[in-house]
Amino acid sequence: LDTAFPDARTALHDTFGFSAFRGVQEQVVARVLHGQSTLAVMPTGAGKSLTYQLPAVMLRGTCIVVSPLIALMHDQLRSASANGIRAATLTSADSDRMATMDAFRAGELDLLYIAPERASQPHFRELLSSAPIALFAIDEAHCVSEWGHDFRPDYRLLRPLLDAFPDVPRLALTATADRHTRADILSQLGIPEDGLIVAGFDRPNIRYAIRPRDNALRQLKGILQEHPGPGVIYAPTRAKVEQLAEALAATGRRVLPYHAGLDPAVRARNQAAFVASEDMVMVATVAFGMGIDKPDVRFVAHAGVPKSIEAYYQETGRAGRDGDPSMAVMLWGADDFARARQRLTEVDEHRRASERQRLDALAALVETAQCRRAILLRHFGEHPPETCGNCDNCLEPVAVTDATEVARKLLSA
Ligand code: ADP
Ligand code: MG
């Protein structure tokens, strides 16, 4: 895990231009990179494609993607190619099948999209035996189940093919599967029960608070006092990490630093100490956290604004994986946003618009007088209630005059 993840982060950034995984993407990708078969149930828009496209780029061999509709395949093909991923379809509608098969045999494809009926063709099985396969990804996997809302008998042809390659991991993906359907998909596709990962974006046990930063050290000391359990403080630079870790350790709390500039042995030691601890605080850059399994993190604090709303969600999401009450506190300053906007000018032109959008979304989250959770979940395409009762704005609504002031500022921006 620890060796694969820096690479996964690099590939995520270099191939897709994303700064962080969303929701359970990280867990799903980790399983796939470890060769573990998985069923991921993730809402539409959650980013299911990435969970096989990223491993497809990283792993040796081709990822075979099963998709029910040629139109869907072509959408995928376009977006994959736009990211420089080598992808092709092999369907009856394709006139260049010979060239595609040659490319597969030559190991020149990251992704090969097929319709389920192809799975039963002896020719196709022979083809697959002629070059390494990294992964079988089964999109719209609910189609395999009669419990599902869109049963397709052709999906039942997949199992013999999958079983002919027992060493190749399987990744089944769907947005819509109730309990029955999930169990059925697992058994139909031969995925172990513990391979089920279900996403929803809401993390109701995390209390969100976003505060202006006046004196970061004093504010962080206050947070440490309120939260005796394990916590992570994200700081923007290595120097800031070192400085805060030292200052906070002076309070008597066990505090260690973590960033990519530390000796790998020190990094590993600090990480192991944190994972084992019940009260330690890790002050870290965003290099810390990915693929680290510590369910009882009680708070995540940001000493400065994260890169994007996705990064914020990802990083705060490391709190409270055990479901117990946890806290996410962000301390922000206007200078953070000024610096981020400055960084935008250095971004590739074709990415600038989307990066700006993500930054604006983060600014809106920071500035809002409305429910933080509602803003966050809406960003991920959900339709949450207006208030959550577990964020600073719901618990301590600002005076109406202040809210009007904020609204005016937003409108004039
Ligand atoms: P799904 O198949 O779950 O409906 P997609 O794979 O089509 O979702 O992804 C939905 C959108 O989310 C795409 O525009 C994709 O580029 C974007 N996306 C996926 N992962 C991330 C991420 N980690 N950060 C930002 N955007 C992402
Ligand atoms: Mg999809």
Automatic annotation (TrEMBL):
> What does this protein need as cofactor?
Zn(2+); Mg(2+)
Tell me where in this chain the Helicase C-terminal domain is found.
216-363
GO terms, molecular function: helicase activity
Q: Does the keyword ATP-binding apply?
A: yes
| Top-level EC class as recorded in UniProt | isomerase
Its keywords, alphabetically, are:
ATP-binding, DNA damage, DNA recombination, DNA repair, DNA-binding, Helicase, Hydrolase, Isomerase, Metal-binding, Nucleotide-binding, Zinc
Query: Which reaction does this chain catalyze?
Result: Couples ATP hydrolysis with the unwinding of duplex DNA by translocating in the 3'-5' direction
Q: Where is the Helicase ATP-binding domain?
A: 29-195
Instruction: Write the Enzyme Commission number(s) for this entry.
Output: 5.6.2.4
Similarity annotation: Belongs to the helicase family. RecQ subfamily.
Q: What is this protein called?
A: DNA helicase RecQ
What is the species of this protein?
A: Novosphingobium rhizovicinum
Source taxonomy:
Bacteria, Pseudomonadati, Pseudomonadota, Alphaproteobacteria, Sphingomonadales
Stretch of the intact protein here: 2 to 414 of 592
